[in-house]
Structure formats: structure tokens, C-alpha cells
């Protein structure tokens, strides 16, 4: 079942703010929260993540009916990619080296910002590219 395309973009906006806060403060606690949010989105789907819940209960009722839908698999894969980068960043901030925390969190922030500001989801594009490379035409 396809999902409201505005939900992942809302989640990317919140993610951008959270990752920026983690990067500025170098807080492993803030990044741990975002890592958990990515993990839930990757494991249960973007609509079941904390930001998906916030969109569904707080934002969507105030918007008109959705006009654009998308399959849930690419955003879910993007959450898994975010989880990898947030996990690396968390390891860097908590255990060192600090440059790993800064670099991995910065890359995750850049990807989230691209989705929030321009609607361009890098993880989704990676998913589609992988699918094209692995699925053989009949």
C-alpha cells in the first residue's frame, strides 16, 4: 500500500533539525535518539517511526487529502541507510574518533536536508538504482 509522500518529507525535516542539533552539540544522546528513530523506521516502516506517528497524528489531519503517493520500500531503505550513518556517527561521538562522528553525522544531515528542502531522497535513489541493477528483465 502506497504512503502519503508528504510524510517522509516531514520526517526528513525533523531529522534535519535533530541531526543539526547533534552535530552542533556533538551530543551522543541526541544522535542516539535519531539512531533509534532510523532503526524504527527501517524495521517497522516509515509510517510506524516516531516522526511518521507525529505526521499521521499531528500534521496530516491539518492538511488536505494527499494528492501524491509513493511506495514505502524506498523510504524504508533510506531509513536503513540513515541508520548506518547515524550508528557510525554515534560510535564516533561516544567512543571516538571524533572525526568519524562529525563526518558520518554530517553526511546523514546532508542527505536529510536534500530530502527536506528539495524532495530529493538519496537513500530512495540508491534503492531504485540497486533494484535496476539486480532485477533482470524477463
Q: What can you see in these coordinates?
A:
The structure is a single chain. With 138 residues, this protein is mainly alpha-helical. It is 75% helix and 3% strand. It has helices spanning 6-25, 28-44, 50-59, 73-95, 98-118, 122-134; strands at residues 3-4, 69-70. It has a two-stranded antiparallel sheet. It is globular and about 45 Å long. The chain starts with a strand and ends with a helix.
Task: Write a concise synopsis of the structure shown.
This protein has helices spanning 6-25, 28-44, 50-59, 73-95, 98-118, 122-134, and strands at 3-4, 69-70. With 138 residues, the protein is mainly α. Strands 1-2 form a two-stranded antiparallel ribbon.
Q: Topology of this protein?
A:
Elements: E1 3-4, H1 6-25, H2 28-44, H3 50-59, E2 69-70, H4 73-95, H5 98-118, H6 122-134
Antiparallel strand pairs: 1-2
Helix pairs in contact: 1-2, 1-3, 1-5, 2-4, 4-5, 4-6
Helix and strand pattern:
EHHHEHHH
Low-confidence stretches: none
Outline, from the CA principal axes?
globular
Strand order of the largest sheet: 1-2
Q: What fraction strand?
A: under 5%
Helix/strand class = mainly alpha
Largest sheet: 2 strands, antiparallel
Number of strands: 2
Percent helix range: over 70%
Gyration radius, in Å: 15 Å
Write down the overall mean pLDDT.
96
Distance between the termini: 25 Å
Amino acid at each position: 500500500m502506497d504512503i502519503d509522500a508528504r510524510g517522509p518529507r516531514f520526517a526528513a525535516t525533523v531529522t534535519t533539525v535533530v541531526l543539526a542539533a547533534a552535530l552542533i552539540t556533538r551530543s551522543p544522546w541526541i544522535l542516539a535518539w535519531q539512531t533509534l528513530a532510523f532503526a524504527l523506521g527501517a524495521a517497522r516502516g516509515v509510517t510506524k517511526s516516531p516522526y511518521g506517528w507525529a505526521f499521521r497524528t499531528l500534521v496530516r489531519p491539518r492538511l488536505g487529502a494527499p494528492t501524491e503517493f509513493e511506495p514505502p520500500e524506498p523510504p524504508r531503505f533510506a531509513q536503513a541507510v540513515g541508520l548506518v550513518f547515524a550508528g557510525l556517527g554515534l560510535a564516533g561521538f561516544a567512543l571516538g574518533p571524533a572525526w568519524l562522528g562529525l563526518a558520518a553525522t554530517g553526511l546523514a544531515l546532508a542527505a536529510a536536508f536534500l530530502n527536506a528542502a528539495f524532495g530529493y531522497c538519496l537513500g530512495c535513489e540508491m534503492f531504485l538504482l540497486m533494484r535496476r541493477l539486480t532485477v533482470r528483465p524477463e
